[in-house]
Batch of 2 targets.
Target 1
Amino acid sequence: MQRLKCIISYDGSAFSGYQVQPNRRTVQAVIEDALQKMHKGEFIRIHASGRTDAGVHAIGQVIHFDSPLAIPANRWKVALNSLLPDEIVVKDVQKTHSDFHARFDVISKEYQYKILLKRDRDVFLRHYVHHVPHSLDYIAMKEAIKYFIGTKDFSSFCSAKTEIEDKIRTVYEIEFFEESDMLTFRFVGNGFLYNMVRIMVGTILEVGLGYRSSKEIVTILEMKDRTKAGKTAPSHGLYLWKVNYNN
Amino acid sequence: MQRLKCIISYDGSAFSGYQVQPNRRTVQAVIEDALQKMHKGEFIRIHASGRTDAGVHAIGQVIHFDSPLAIPANRWKVALNSLLPDEIVVKDVQKTHSDFHARFDVISKEYQYKILLKRDRDVFLRHYVHHVPHSLDYIAMKEAIKYFIGTKDFSSFCSAKTEIEDKIRTVYEIEFFEESDMLTFRFVGNGFLYNMVRIMVGTILEVGLGYRSSKEIVTILEMKDRTKAGKTAPSHGLYLWKVNYNN
């Protein structure tokens, strides 16, 4: 038996999210199906660094699983990609130690969020960016993001649909940069609550559009009330970019 | 009554081609539906520079239509875009003279064809590029494209499924350039037969892969026989890029 760690990328517009659900095409189900084919019908459970919602993309999602097959690591990637549909690709497969866990061993995660600023929509990017045809106040936005940095209770930035009780997370880094009509946000933290990145983006955009002042972020955080923060930005601009582990 | 000329862009993966067909979602049908809404139920026929097949994209398709509405040209664009789905966008609307015709007045057309050369597939580009994970002999390909330039009988590079009898076309320009794993072909000609660009690309790729010599193009053209040319490259790499008219 060997444990394998894979880095995978997928187009979220092709799936009903990551996690297995009855009668839905999910990322987990499609990968487990491919593994079952490789294992002559034997079911192989995979474990990811975390779920992604319907529409959310992944550039560097990490999964692990155990296999009795004696396949060299460099052959796993080719074998899996030949069995997976075009909407998923395995970018890397490594053998790992038997107590590595893709979810429990996460040190930090990076998400990116992409916004198209052009006035006209781009028909080719409709599933891959959030279209905001308005100018944004970058100075106010830079001010706003500072208030998120650090270890805080993010209850106001978490969907009500969650069972997790501990809403304290540490955000290490938020930045944004513009490159030919595309505004990209980078978020790095030790973990993110359900919809947390999308609610932060939605709220930062409301600051950028002048609907809120940047200082409101402080009050919103203090109130620990989801209804005080901004709208949840759409899923299709969000990318799980990278998952970091202790070596 | 005024005649309007529009430049439109669409994602071919969302439609069963350009031309109206029963029970299919086509580009023409969707635009005519939007116009019918604007004209309170009155049907407005549109005319394009030419059809595009299912899966083929457009950056600069041109259409014209006549309307009795007294809307200034700059308001037409916003009105139409608000009624069209996300997969189509109107980029420009101009009033034109009453004998302008989007198809009959074409002077030349430009198509582009995009090929992803990376070894791994890109899940986000699966509808937008043709994936060729092999190295190509650019010198042989450059040699091959020269034989297409000029006024020739392109019977060998035309789908058998066509009613057009005159297979003589003039190709003004073919070039290709590589930019970070993306190979782009540009084709400019006075007109292109059914599947002509895709069969030329398929054949040039077979030269690039070493399956054929570049000089074979000369013989293939002379034989006026579709079965002698290469495979038709997939529709999803093809873009109708620009349509040129007199002034």
Target 2
Amino acid sequence: MNIILASTSTLFGGEYLEYLKEELIQLYKGIDEIIFIPFARPGGISYDDYTAIANSFFKTINIKVKGLHEFENKKEAIDNAKAYFTGGGNTFLLVKTLHDEELMYVLKHNIESGKPYLGCSAGSNIGGRNMKTTNDMPIVYPSSFDCMELVPFNINPHYLDQNPNLKHNGETRETRIKEFLTQNDIKVVGLREGNWIRRVGNRITVEGSEWTRIFEPGNEPYEINEGSEL
Amino acid sequence: MNIILASTSTLFGGEYLEYLKEELIQLYKGIDEIIFIPFARPGGISYDDYTAIANSFFKTINIKVKGLHEFENKKEAIDNAKAYFTGGGNTFLLVKTLHDEELMYVLKHNIESGKPYLGCSAGSNIGGRNMKTTNDMPIVYPSSFDCMELVPFNINPHYLDQNPNLKHNGETRETRIKEFLTQNDIKVVGLREGNWIRRVGNRITVEGSEWTRIFEPGNEPYEINEGSEL
């Protein structure tokens, strides 16, 4: 496999995908066209508008972007594609659409055969075992929470440390993930913004400028640094 | 109906349910025993421990608390009870358990017949039309997102305004609710901590010290103040 699962598409104050540019040139080496999966629709943006945003970045590295929604036969489009990018947004909407159109496992098999894949945020969630560690609001009801399992754990993108100045009693992210662990025997990678998971063949590492917080059933959470194997 | 749906059980720096004490004395007037529904299990706490926390408050207003989990026949226990309280925690866990044990509509019918109900946080989410505006992590997969519809809208508890100082690209609460509105034709009440919804008969008002933010399909969000009818 040859994949990147990133916490976010955009760093605070940065441009779309800019901080990943050098990595993406490596990921998609030799490829001149990718399929963009726009189903997560952040803020309800249209598929066309979302695809145009992806295109505005990829043209800077000479890669053409086609939206998956543009194809009549989407399974065939996935099978024929050379590489993929799934953008962020609402994970429930993304997973529901992929299951309803029976595309989740078509995509999985193509990525497992070695075609490059980039996921950001919701697009990274679907690279995990299931979507049960998303931060998103359940605005639609998917037929299943199962995902592609491109890595043998779950991802919590946009991982956020507790803000000691916040006078608020909603659960912290850490509390939420610990609640997940009471119900699931699955490791969770708390991926701070600026970090990404890189899988090349069977080697899975965490990359980026921040430490990464690991949650495992039965253990206290701990931190690993850039380049650590997962 | 005679219900309170509160944003939170506990104000920042306050004691459990303390800020609602006078309201709860009114809500449960003439009642000496209630059933507590502990299924949301915040932080994975046991049903017994969670029920003990509820009890520690209710004994200060001379009300006995029995955990629903203590009963062999839970449907019968609900039918026989005089009043209810559902505590906060994980809404997915709460809704899954209520549907799996076929208790959601038994509870609904009893509350609709006039028995007092208090919900906090997840316990308020289940008073709405469905749980699609919860903030919680989908740690388990419920058989349905449908809830009791004690009020003709959805609730977003712990409603939180954007923090302009946060250098983070995760979605704001407002963005999440607007995404919900792209997929659902249902009003959402953004209930800040300190506020609650009060329904007496057919009159539904918002109460508490904060303004309340209302999200409706096709309209810009707007604010209403204490005592406004919903």
